[in-house]
Amino acid sequence: MTELYLHVGLPKTGTTSIQYFMGHNRAVLKKHGICYPKLNYTYPVTNPYRNGRFLSTPFVEDEETEKKTKDRPCAEYESLLDHLAEIAPKYEKIVLSDESIWSYRAKQPFFWQNLKDDLAKRNLDLHFIVYVRRQDQFVLSLYKEKIKRSFTNLTFYEYLDWLKKHKYPLDYAAYIDMLTNILDRTHIHIRIFEKEQFQGEEHNLLSDFLDILGLSLKDGFETLPNENSSVDGTYLTMQYYLNSLSEPPHLSPTLRQSFFDVQTQNPFIQNVGETTLFRKGEQAAFLERFSDSNRRLASQYLDREDGRLFLNTEVKDLPQYQVSTEELLRDTIIYFGRVVQVLEAQNLRLRESLDSKTRKIVRNEIEKMKESSATFQWLRKIYRLEKKIIRK
Predict the structure, then answer these.
(1) In the chain, N or C terminus with fewer CB closer than 10 Å?
(2) Is the pLDDT at 367 greater than 70, yes or no?
(3) pTM here?
(4) Which residues are within 8 A (CB) of 268 and not within 5 positions of it... i.e. 6 or more apart?
(5) CB-side exposure of 75: number of CA atoms within 13 Å?
(6) What is the DSSP-derived secondary structure letter of residue 192?
(7) Over the stretch 75-109, which tens digit does the pLDDT of each residue have?
(8) Which CATH number fits domain 2-232+272-323: 3.90.550.10, 3.50.50.60, 3.40.50.300, 3.50.7.10?
(9) What residue ranges do the domains of the chain occupy?
């Protein structure tokens, strides 16, 4: 039976790096009997290497009531599982990855049980991979990512309330409890997103992930630079305000490219140093809410007698994030100056393209006129010759 490893996140635990690495090294994985399949479906504005995306799209719109129906997989669910079953005999392991599965499928044992059963019918054995990150660091990083992707215009504390209201699964032990009623403990692979705890000879995220699959970075793999940069400093505030536009800025290539340009090339940008979005003293209190859950996960599921899930439990006394009005105005001017430059360059290319097309059209018309003129002259000659013959 082929093992299917489902990497479910969490978000902001290097999932994008893992997905690009796996997709880029498909040929190497194949040599080791592992498939990171490229499935025949796509989602708009989504990393194409998120090949488990169809499992994290749980809802289908009900056209009559305009309400979301109860937790049905996407329409391609059955056909994609059938495709996996077709290729499975060629491999020992198949790997799927999508970071949103963790939150979309939280507290849905029927989904996990159904998925396990649907895979078993196709001779596929489900394994579960998750990376957990210290909760305070996780929500800080997740919020910045949502701002960067234009998925929210909430303040940080409004976003924390949103997570609580929607019961975002930050109690890691409770989630694993649910899974252990469905999957064998040996099929649940819990890894800690902390550089001190990464496995593999290189002790980095990629060597750790390959370690789960029984591989090493030295098995012929090629690494890639991490392109998923974070947004911070004045750019976090600028992006926050841009997210209030009626049309999200991530749908505008000009705004998106200009923002990236100035963020990476601004000559005035300075290292703002470490800050936090938490108010003074509240970050440690937030983390403490999960201390019992984290200890139980460490002792019960990772067999750690000391109950330490994260080796680094220090919460630094950092200043709360803020930007000066002068810096914000400076970078805003630079940003919109860059927008104007990009638009001007696009207009110039468009004018040149139109001019080129216009010149081509004019040349074609002139040639047609020449041809028509030559044809007319020949017809006149033939007509005159014809008249002479008739007279004779």
Answers:
(1) C
(2) no
(3) 0.83
(4) 330, 331, 334
(5) 5
(6) E
(7) 788 999 999 999 999 999 999 999 999 998 887 88
(8) 3.40.50.300
(9) 2-232+272-323, 233-267+324-392
